[in-house]
Amino acid sequence: MAEVLLNNVTKVYPGDVKAVDSANLDIRDGEFVVLVGPSGCGKTTTLRMVAGLEDITQGTINIGERVINDVAPKDRDIAMVFQNYALYPHMSVYKNMAFGLKMRKMKKDQIDQRVQKAAKLLDIQHLLERKPKALSGGQRQRVAVGRAIVRDPKAFLFDEPLSNLDAKLRGVMRAELKELHARLKTTTIYVTHDQEEAMSLGDLIVVMHGGIIRQVGAPLDVYDRPADRFVAGFVGTPPMNFLEGYIRRTDGKFKFDLSGTLLDLPERYFPCLADCVDQKMVLGARPENIKPVDAEHAAPGETVGMKVIVSEPLGGVRDVYLNHGPDGQRVIMRCDAHVRVPHGGDTLVKIDLERTHVFETGELGMNVTLNGNSNGVGA
Fold first, then answer.
1. Whole-prediction pTM value?
2. Who contacts 230 (Cβ-Cβ below 8 Å, separation ≥6)?
3. 124-133: per-residue pLDDT in tens?
4. Could you tell me if 179 and 123 are in contact, meaning their C-beta atoms sit under 8 angstroms apart?
5. What are the residues whose beta carbons fall under 8 Å from the beta carbon of 170, sequence distance 6 or more?
6. Tens of pLDDT along 175-217?
7. How far apart are CA 32 and CA 41, in angstroms?
8. How far apart are CA 206 and CA 202, in angstroms?
9. Do residues 334 and 318 lie in contact, with contact meaning Cβ atoms separated by under 8 Å?
């Protein structure tokens, strides 16, 4: 096992296409780190540079104490699990798992010991004599992971390993990978476009966009304290709601002017908003922090009138799509499935303003209230 360190790592393709821009990342020994972001954000390119499958244009990558920029992939002491499993179709499971060790000229009894141990760990002992074509997708994935485990590498690299599996099996495999990491404690870098997968697996998640690392942090910290609008909108299902309005100052207090409705912002935000008065800003609120309320219990400063567009029951919860104001700003509210809302009619909703954020406008608008969101309070 070893620490993996990226220092100002940049990748530029022909035509001056910058796939990764000055990435800095410190992955501690034994940590499970997930690189997450939309297609084309640079996460897979970053992983491939660590693996040695892509040259580094600028910067350095360390594995342990060694700079590995010019080290051949086979000499980096890492093991990679690919999206398509990359199993040899003509070899049995046993031979697939043993192949890398055989190429290293390891003794036959040592190879057998490692393969049997990994097979037991992954519960695939009964599959060792089968060929890949006789395996299910989940079984092939276990074999690919087993092939990585037997090498006992300093780090595991996973490139969207679950994307070819159905939703139910992905959930099962996520749990298995998490349990496996808890046992092996090997440094792991995992790439996915699925933010739910990132949240469930990672000790640390790295959110990327346009080749740039937008935020690094523990999953709940990134969820509760997003650095900008992109992170806030990407992490979370359904995504965070963004409502445009203006910051107003009245009687020494700061309020968010939402089409004439003044919402009372938390006092801890006041120092962050001093330079934002009368500026157009964006209020961010998670769907679960918006709830229906009847007129009798509606309190000024936290209640907004909206129009119900459609309601989606999802088992124990219900997602309600709403419109607000003359511009028809779309809002998603998540509430208990048994709560009734007037389909196609008007309703009042209460926004938990203690758990909101204020962002600058634009897709990458910064969270100006980030410093005011502390002690676990946020999205």
1. 0.91
2. 207, 209, 214, 363, 364
3. 999 999 999 9
4. no
5. 162, 197
6. 989 999 999 999 999 999 999 999 999 999 999 999 999 999 9
7. 20
8. 9
9. yes
